[in-house]
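User: Can you predict the 3D structure for this chain?
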Amino acid sequence: ERLIHIQEVAGSIPALSTINACQKHMSKPIDQSVVGETHIEWAVPEYEQYSRGPYWYIIMSSLGIILVIYAVFTGNFLFALILILAGIIMFLQSHQVPRQIAFKVTETGIVLGRKFYSYNEFEEFYIFYNPPEVKMLFIQPISMMQPALRIPLLDQNPLEVKFALRQYISENTEKSEEPTADTLSRRFKIQ
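Assistant: Here is the predicted structure, written as structure tokens:
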């Protein structure tokens, strides 16, 4: 009875009712009639998990401590907090298995997990394929405010993926190198 009363009160507060509505909407499965027929699909890890040895942890911890000390001495406490949080997140991520998320190329758009992207949201796609190091699909949105979708190809045939996407999005064949940020994060094993 008390729970029902709290839900009624929360529903009458505009901000809380909007949050409740958003939570209900987010948990709904994607409507297959909107998605259409699936051309190609595979499961991708939520994030790339690197095997890091003890030397990596020693070097990165030392670098982190030095940067935190520098930030404190210069009075940049926000930078120090960001460094500490980044270290905690990286440590926690390295000790858990990433979830597998479904990726689908469909008739009307792209599905990544529970999120649907219409093709009109994207400008182009490109694939960097240099096995075994790099096997990655990048899908660039039209909006400069959104980052590119970065999808590991894993064992997928890049030609099949290109064929499926070319029907809906233009391919940028001039991109010959992986983005610098991705190269650095892979080399230094940083997520």
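The beta strands are 38-45, 100-106, 109-112, 115-118, 122-130, 134-141, 149-152, 170-171. Residues 54-73 form the longest helix (20 residues).
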